[in-house]
Design brief:
Pfam family, one: Glyco_transf_28
GO molecular function: hexosyltransferase activity; UDP-glycosyltransferase activity
Largest sheet: 8 strands, parallel
Number of helices: 17
Structural class: alpha/beta
Strand order of the largest sheet: 1-8-7-6-5-2-3-4
CATH class of the largest domain: Alpha Beta
Protein name: UDP:flavonoid glycosyltransferase YjiC, YdhE family
Radius of gyration: 21 Å
Keywords: Transferase
Length: about 450
């Protein structure tokens, strides 16, 4: 089935609220690696698939087993037993320009053979494999066994399109090149392509051991060779490009209603009491990964709020910063908190960025690594917020960024417009409709 250039076209898949199951339920393996923010869109897909009579099996890091089983899903451990809350690991990944190289060359590529064997076992008897881009064996398994494969890309940077240039974490100056001629952008894209090729030797060797042809670009482009590619971000954030694979469907963001964890009992009540007791606060958060290596982010944020004489909520439970005007909490449901914020300050992870955009509130993005600098640049281009270098996130400099958002109403007005548009999207339903069309066509 040809999915050419589809972007949020519900008529192609029925009504956005139309469950489309016309065939018996399928066993669908959903494989993902990453932070909790990365996992949430896959949980949203799993919930929607289950509601339509399918049997989703979630394969991910053992760290998430209890959370996933508590939701009633079949769980399968996949990949090395790393903790996304390990401060040393997060520091290495988030606070160094070589974080992406470490992620690929040290954390995942050495384990591809074992992960392939695990995934092959999990997919035995399955009708479909849905996988995130860090599940490196997924494209290989699909090529070798023929299992239908859906690739999920959560961020625009995953496409590395010269038609919509991304800001690479090791090359932040690329922000200045946006709008330069296409020939220049095509040359720039070759830089990360060369890095991926240099890192890919273990993956290429493993392909050869399976009797598959050599593919020097497998590490970078394997995710694009699925039967269906789901671009699970809003066209307000990044529009479809002419070099995207023809079998790509852009769905919009997948909104996930976060489940309450026992260790967070009473947190929402504390947040509600604080919100109801005064003016809208500035919300400072670092998502679910960078929060474990925050440096002095929360300390400087509290000082900036104090300089502005504004209330604040610090999500991440930093110690020693609570006061009558500052609430610290270990966790927050962004969908409930962000719409009531005056300003949202965050790290730019795609999950946090999606919820900030959806809330319709202005934002300051303090990016750490990976897709975050690119997401920050897109927030700036949308006119809904500002980017602030994390190394310069000191109370005085932070104060300047925040005061600019307070004094310039255009940011709040534009954020409200974008938020209204994004809230009309239903990325989860659109994605599952596309998945069911793929299943029905086979």
């Amino acid at each position: 089935m040809d999915f050419t250039a589809l972007s949020l076209q519900p008529n192609a898949y029925g009504s956005l609220n139309d469950g489309m199951t016309e065939t018996p339920g399928k066993r669908i393996v959903i494989a993902s690696f990453g932070s909790l923010g990365d996992l949430h869109p896959f949980l949203a897909l799993a919930q929607e698939l289950r509601s339509r009579g399918h049997h989703p099996v979630i394969a991910t890091a053992p760290f998430y087993s209890e959370r996933i089983q508590a939701l009633g899903f079949e769980f399968e451990p996949l990949g090395p037993p790393v903790s996304p809350q390990d401060p040393q690991l997060i520091h290495r990944l988030m606070r160094t320009v070589r974080g992406p190289e470490y992620l690929f060359r040290k954390m995942f590529l050495p384990h591809v053979p074992e992960m392939y064997a695990e995934l092959e076992r999990i997919c035995s008897g399955a009708d479909l494999l849905i996988a995130g881009e860090m599940v490196l064996p997924a494209p290989i398994l699909a090529e070798k066994t023929g299992i239908p494969f859906v690739s999920v890309l959560l961020s625009p940077i995953s496409f590395l399109s010269p038609y919509d240039p991304s800001v690479l974490p090791a090359l932040p100056f690329l922000t200045l090149t946006h709008g330069w001629p296409l020939v220049f952008q095509k040359a720039l894209v070759k830089m990360p392509a060369l890095a991926f090729r240099r890192w890919s030797t273990p993956l290429r060797n493993f392909r050869k051991s399976l009797g598959l042809p050599d593919d020097p670009e497998a590490l970078r482009t394997g995710k694009l060779k699925a039967n269906l590619v789901l671009a699970m971000f809003s066209p307000q954030f990044a529009k479809p490009q002419p070099d995207w694979p023809a079998h790509t469907v852009q769905t919009g963001f997948a909104h996930y209603e976060q489940e309450s964890q026992p260790e967070h009992d009473g947190v929402q009540e504390r947040i509600d009491d604080f919100l109801n007791a005064g003016t809208p606060p500035i919300v400072f958060t670092l998502g679910s990964a960078a929060v474990h290596a925050p440096g002095d982010f929360f300390w400087m944020s509290a000082r900036a709020a104090h300089r502005l004489k504004m209330r604040a909520i610090l999500v991440g439970d930093p110690r020693g910063l609570s006061s009558p005007n500052i609430l610290t909490v270990p966790y927050a449901d962004y969908s409930k908190l962000f719409p009531r914020a005056a300003i949202i300050v965050h790290q730019g992870g795609i999950g946090t960025t999606a919820e900030a955009l959806r809330s319709g509130r202005p934002q300051v993005v303090v990016p750490f690594n990976f897709d975050q600098p690119d997401n920050a640049a897109r927030v700036v281009r949308l006119g809904v917020g500002l980017k602030h270098d994390r190394r310069m996130w000191k109370d005085r400099q932070a104060h300047y960024s925040l005061i600019r958002l307070i004094r310039d109403n255009s940011f709040a007005e534009r954020a409200a417009q974008i938020g209204e548009l994004i809230r009309k999207e239903d990325g989860t339903t659109t994605a599952v409709n596309a998945v069911e069309h793929l299943l029905a066509a086979r």
